[in-house]
Amino acid sequence: MKKTIILSIIFVATTFTSFSQTKQESIKQLFHSMQVDSTMEKTFRTIIPAITAQLPKGNNDPAKSAALNQFMSSLMSSAKDMCKKMLDEDLVVIYDKLFTENEIKDLIVFYNTPTGKKMIEKQPEMQMEMTRILMQKYIPELQKNIADSALKLKPAE
């Protein structure tokens, strides 16, 4: 009797583990279909000039400009590494939690259609537009609201 129970537990655990691995493999296949790595690369190529343009200039000092460029290069390299790790580790867990294996397979099918491929192609451009709108339209309003709230919290002198 004990052997039957133990064998049943091992069978269920093995089945569950192999199902989980299969689902995670499907998620990684989805990321491949979504071209997550190249989309991330395109996104960085799109946002780096926007970020760099907002940085203070080196007052035409070549040494300061070179140092700033070196700093930005190092910062972007670290950010890419962090994003890659997040995609490879954390995003797999999130997709595993939020989508069934059948939904993952449906998404793989979608991203291999012409419409899905266009969605992938346009993703960096959409993100750039959203960032531009956020920076021009919503961030100034948020900054004003924060400043106004800070003034209200400041004790009267």
* Unreliable residue runs: 14-19
Could you report the average pLDDT, rounded to the nearest whole number? 80
Number of spatially distinct domains: 1
Our count of helices gives: 5
Tertiary shape = extended
Succession of helices and strands: HHHHH
> C-alpha Rg, in Å?
24 Å
Strand tally: 0
Q: Helical residue percent?
A: over 70%
The biggest beta sheet reads: none
Q: What class would the helix/strand composition place it in? A: mainly alpha
Report how far the terminal alpha carbons are from each other: 80 Å
How would you describe the overall organization of this protein?
This protein is mostly helical. The protein has one domain (2-120). Helix content is 89%, strand content 0%. It contains five helices and no strands. Helix 2 (36-54) runs parallel beside helix 5. The termini are far apart. 3% of the residues are buried.
What descriptive keywords fit this protein?
about 160 residues; mainly alpha; about 90% helix; about 0% strand
